[in-house]
Design brief:
It is a single chain. By secondary structure, the chain is α+β, with helices and mostly antiparallel strands. It has 14 helices and 24 strands. Helix 4 crosses helix 7 and helix 5 packs parallel to helix 12. The longest helix has 23 residues. The chain is globular, with a radius of gyration of 25 Å. The termini are far apart.
């Protein structure tokens, strides 16, 4: 989709005329206009044109945890500047005649929640929440400008206006495209050229089967097919993926192999099924904590993709059992000695608590119920009640299917009591016929090791943790808050033993913390890095193993 030079010049000239038109509109009483312009695949421009005298605007999305959300923004004129999370005009009386303009870099960096400007080949995926402001200077509208703009299933040429009547305008994805002639056939799908066609075909297949199955099983949920945007992003860092399930469903594969083995294909399938499962959910009402909301929402998407994957054969019964066992093990390793409601937002997000505590909560709550309603029928009843009345008790609907006289037993303890997560699960599963106690598997041993390394990073980095486990190493991102981990490192050895595949490594780390209060890390480049270990590393000796045949029979009677 290369652009001819003459065509590009005319496009930029048109932007200049449009910018003048926007400025003129501010004088005549239009709302504050936030205009976002596609300059090229490396840079956007955002401008704020107030209609009245204005001193400052506060950006709605705060720059949390020092993540540098707007560090790359650069002022393009001298009448307004960026101060932290605020745009400040030098002279309020002249603000109506001053359009605050900033260059915004297109970046591969992943931020909390939605991305400000993510590259998809030559296209750019943005989210208006990163540009939204308060109403100190009046109501707002967005003008998105590019050769073509897509916000869902349709691409429109040149310009898209999201006016004040659009309720979701401050939380909407948009795709800025470099080619005015782009068209979508069938399910709207934009993939950058670096995404292999085999991966595109796999994404389409998983999306189609997930939608078909869940439409049948959850008829009460008002489903709307999103546009898919897939990106293969290479930044020289670790392999991972990042997604969200809004009207443009984002699937970003960072440093992903061009040719995948069976394990890689299964990971992609589960990732895509999870994101599409979100499209069949409704947000919970009346939650008592952020941790509870995440468990219901992210755990629900995990449960839907898990049920879909069993039905379609993407997971064998043995793989499905390992999914539940490993999720519960990660839940206990990450947060087992805390109550769920006591966890902070950062602890929930960094430990992926909603995912790992949520999947087993759904599985055991429904499978262990005395009611015989099939699992997805029960969820459909829950969503229907939410839709009709705006409220529904999650624990009662899952454990009792809303039946009068039935009292939920376990979910209230997990979600809202002061008991530790470990204590709740121990009591829950020791009285259940659906699981047995088991020694840690190699995967669970490795998860304990990953958690212990994350603990070292938190101690070194003022409570922050940013780790990326890979097959034969674990990557620790450098953070400015750290004492020693200011630059990214790849750890391949711990106490002289391999990071992965050696059952002696975790005990050696436990001993080093206990005896020396420090751990020696062997780096990929051959150096040794020693980190303090003031808090003892705990190794859990017993986990739980799901009786998968009985569980599936209970979920699908």
């Amino acid at each position: 989709m290369a652009l001819g030079l003459g065509w590009k010049k005319s496009w930029l000239a048109g932007l200049a005329l449009l910018a003048g038109h926007v400025a003129a509109q501010t004088v005549s009483g239009a709302p504050l206009t936030i205009q976002i312009i596609y300059r090229d695949a490396q840079q956007l421009e955002v401008s704020y044109a107030p209609q009245q005298a204005c001193q400052r605007l506060r950006l709605s999305k705060e720059n949390r945890d020092g993540e540098g959300l707007r560090d790359g923004w650069q002022a393009l004129n001298d009448c307004a500047r960026l101060e932290g999370d605020q745009i400040v005009w030098k002279q309020a009386a002249n603000a109506a005649n001053c359009v605050a303009r900033f260059a915004v870099p297109v970046t591969k960096k992943v931020y909390h929640h939605y991305q400000p400007a993510l590259p998809l080949g030559q296209a750019v995926l943005l989210h208006t929440s990163n540009y939204a402001v308060d109403h100190a200077c009046g109501d707002t509208r967005y003008v998105l400008s590019a050769p073509a703009v897509a916000t869902g299933g349709q691409a429109v040429p040149a310009q898209l206006v999201l006016d004040t009547g659009v309720k979701e305008r401050d939380s909407q994805p948009a795709l800025l495209l470099p080619d005015a002639a782009v068209r979508f056939e069938g399910t709207p799908f934009y993939a950058d050229p670096d995404v292999p066609q085999t991966t595109v075909a796999l994404i389409r297949d998983v999306a189609d089967h997930t939608v078909q199955y869940l439409r049948e099983q959850l008829p009460s949920v008002p489903f709307r097919m999103p546009m898919i945007a897939a990106a293969s992003i290479r930044d020289g860092g670790p392999t991972y993926f990042n997604g969200n399930a809004q009207e443009i469903l984002q699937l970003a594969f960072f440093n992903w192999p061009l040719t995948m083995d069976d394990g890689g294909q299964r990971t992609v399938s589960q990732f895509v099924a999870h994101e599409f499962s979100h499209r069949f959910q409704m947000y919970p009402a009346g939650v008592a904590s952020y941790a509870e909301e995440r468990l219901i929402h992210e755990g629900g998407a995990e449960f839907l993709r898990w049920m879909t994957s069993i039905k379609t054969g993407w997971l064998s019964p043995q793989q499905a059992a390992a999914d539940v066992d490993n999720a519960l093990a990660k839940c206990l390793i990450s947060a087992g000695q805390r109550s769920l409601r006591s966890l902070s937002r950062a602890e929930v997000d960094n430990g992926r608590i909603g995912y790992v505590c949520g999947l087993p909560a759904y599985v055991y709550a429904i499978a262990g119920s005395t009611e015989i309603t099939p699992a997805l029928k029960r969820l459909d009843n829950y969503y229907r009640q939410l839709q009709q009345s705006g409220s529904a008790d999650f624990a009662t609907m899952l454990e009792c299917d809303g039946k009068a006289g039935c009292q939920p037993r376990w979910l209230p303890q997990l979600l809202r009591s002061e008991q530790t997560i470990s204590a709740v699960w121990q009591h829950w599963l020791s009285s259940s016929a659906l699981a047995v106690s088991s020694k840690p598997t190699p995967d669970q041993q490795q998860e304990m090791l990953i958690s212990a390394i994350g603990q070292l990073m938190r101690e070194d980095c003022s409570g922050m943790r940013d780790v990326y486990p890979q097959k034969d190493k674990i990557v620790l991102s450098g953070l400015p808050q750290c004492q020693r981990l200011r630059a990214e490192v790849s750890v391949t050895q711990i106490e002289g033993l391999p990071y992965s595949g050696d059952q002696r490594t975790l005990p050696a780390m436990v001993s080093a913390c206990r005896e020396r209060q420090e751990v020696r890390l062997g780096l990929e480049q051959g150096q040794t890095l020693t980190l303090a270990c003031r808090k003892p590393v705990e190794a859990i000796s017993q986990f739980h193993q799901a009786k998968i045949a009985e569980i599936i029979r209970q979920l699908q009677p």
